[in-house]
Amino acid sequence: MTATLMLELRDLGKSFELHQQHGAHLNVLRGVNLSLHAGECVVLSGPSGAGKSTLLRVIYANYRTSGGAVYVRHDDRWLDLASATPHEVLDVRRRTLGYVSQFLRVIPRVSALDIVAEPLLRDGMDEHEARERAAAMLRRVNIPERLWALPPGTFSGGEQQRVNIARGLIVPRPILLLDEPTASLDAGNRAVVAELLAEARAAGSAVLGIFHDEAMRDQVATRLFTMQALEAA
Ligand SMILES: Nc1ncnc2c1ncn2[C@@H]1O[C@H](COP(=O)(O)OP(=O)(O)OP(=O)(O)O)[C@@H](O)[C@H]1O
Predict the structure, then answer these.
(1) How much of the chain, in percent, has pLDDT values that exceed 70?
(2) 51 lines ligand 1 (CB under 6 A)
(3) Residue nearest to atom 31 of ligand 1 (CA)
């Protein structure tokens, strides 16, 4: 059986206008074509500056495309995020497209437990069950129980990153974009994340990620997508 196609990039381009350099253009992506299927984990590789993070941000519609299309399967129909309305983009982000970066967006006075439970509550789960599930997830990523009730602003880099992963993977969205989510983690915690990703894939998620650590990349990638840096226009 062929796996379901979840994301398709067609002839995608992105250039930045550099306002401080008299409007010069920096071409970062040109003619990118990529298909991503349910259950696979494609890892972006290529030198620093090749545009890997930019590609994820374009897919997540943080950056506008300069050309081409970003088709996502949303509710079993295709939507081009490059031309979608802001309302459609938000709906896709809420239900179909997850994005986990290496940085946790800390919300003052909100505890680690509530940060992790929030996606479940937003999906309509009752509070008790959401908190139980969040606690199990925090335990899984080795956050000590004494920290659960605290806002993560003062947590270490690795602890914040694990809270972020717990939040990002507690409801594995059909498409997951990961920008170095394991950058500050030790080998033991990276192995936990690899396990969580394998479970997300087994449940049908399509994963597209950046992992600079080679061992991690070898562990999680089902395929590499290699990118090259372009010249400035
Ligand atoms: N908002 C922006 N404005 C201008 N230039 C940008 C912007 N974002 C990224 N760039 C440029 O785009 C190029 C690609 O950056 P990007 O972060 O996507 O590369 P990368 O492959 O992820 O690199 P690394 O492996 O070092 O993280 C860089 O030259 C960067 O300076």
Answers:
(1) 98
(2) yes
(3) 49
- Residue 45 Cβ contacting ligand 1 at under 6 Å: no
Q: How many domains does the chain have?
A: 1
Structure tokens belonging to residue 110 = 């909100």
**Residue range(s) defining the domain that contains residue 16:** 5-223
116 within domain boundaries:
yes
Give residue-wise pLDDT tens across range 107-163. Answer: 788 999 999 999 999 999 999 999 999 999 999 999 999 999 999 999 999 999 999
The ligand 1 atom at the shortest distance from the C-alpha of residue 180 is: 27
212 vs 44 pLDDT, higher one: 44
> Ligand 1 centroid to 54 CA: how many Å?
6
The answer to whether residue 228 sits within a structural domain is no
Query: What's the angle, vertex CA 218, arms to CA 215 and CA 221, rounded to 5?
Result: 135
Q: Say if 233 falls within a structural domain.
A: no
Q: 199 in a domain, yes or no?
A: yes
Q: Is the pLDDT of residue 1 over 70?
A: no
Q: What is the CATH number of the domain that holds 127?
A: 3.40.50.300
Q: Is the pTM of this model over 0.90?
A: yes
Work out the average pLDDT over 197-213: 95
